[in-house]
Amino acid sequence: MARATWTGALTFGLVTVPVSMFSATEDHTTRFRQIQRGTADRVRIRRTNERTGDEVAFTEIVKGYDLGDDQYVVIEPSELDEIAPGRSRLIEVSGFVDLAAVDPVYFVSGYFLAPRGEEFTQVYSLLVEALEESGRAAVATMVMRGRQYLTAIRATGDVLELHTLHWADEVRDPAEELPSPPVRTRVSAEQLSAAKQLIEAMSVEWSPTDYRDDYEDRVRELIDAKRAGQEIVTAEAAPEATNVIDLMEALRRSLDRSGATPPRRSKSTTTKPKAGSRAGTEDDLGALSKAELYQRATGLAVPGRSKMTRAQLERAIAKAAAPSKRPHAVA
Length: 331
Hints:
This protein is of the alpha+beta class. The protein has helices at 77-82, 121-134, 174-177, 189-201, 214-228, 247-258, 282-285, 290-299, 310-321, and strands at 6-12, 15-23, 63-68, 71-75, 90-97, 107-115, 137-144, 147-156, 159-165. Among the domains are: 6-25 and 82-170, Ku70, Chain: A, Domain 2; 247-321, no CATH class. The chain is built from nine helices and nine strands. The strands form two sheets. It has a seven-stranded mixed β-barrel with strand order 1-2-6-9-8-7-5. Strands 3-4 form a two-stranded antiparallel sheet. Helix 4 packs parallel to helix 6 (247-258) and helix 8 packs parallel to helix 9. The protein is extended, with a radius of gyration of 32 Å.
């Protein structure tokens, strides 16, 4: 069972409920120890006095604010707690907001809040149900480990989740931080239609269990392979950037891979099979992508083509391209 990382009280209005806070996440990243190359000797980081080189015990370390010219304002750890009496053990709600209105860039870490005793479950449950029914999150501040945090608290099932947030002045402005802020350029209606269609075709329900840390798996495979003296297989190189010339073709191929119907080409680029050629026969259709099959079906005005599977498109194109077998009228 996890240990509480913080204990105190949650208060909104004149209502107070004692709570304990537990980390909502855990890190499964493979940990490495630093060793000197060619040896099994550990390399350790020690707290040392910069002037004397002597190791300093943790209890002998205080905080110093640098004034320059080797001058410091010395602060004892206990003094930081003393300037926030009462507040160091209080999660104080200042208001309630629509959680969807909070930009994800503000979120830092997630925690669970639990009532500290059965006698507090009714007040705790009241806040859970009230947040759930209103669809809002509580905005609160708290002090933990010598630092004040801005937090958002929401109801998830029967539990309160607390998320620490960045303060407004901690979130950077992209216009000031990016060396060359992106300029929105005009895109063609055909490209925009294809991109929106691809987004729709790739839309899924959010399920975090559908995703896995593949890099972590490769790290563990690397460790196992080196332990067994096996050959190490490197990963494939990242794909090259898509240039403007190939953009529409990349979108069409992406749509074909997703099984969605690509947008129609403009009249200037639509190709129709020549009369008397084998372009519309079953013999050569197997070599075409679904996007190319759809283009050909468009040129032949095949009805219902937008809802057809690849096999249906092939049959419909072959049928539409076949010479007419209707009997000639007799004079």
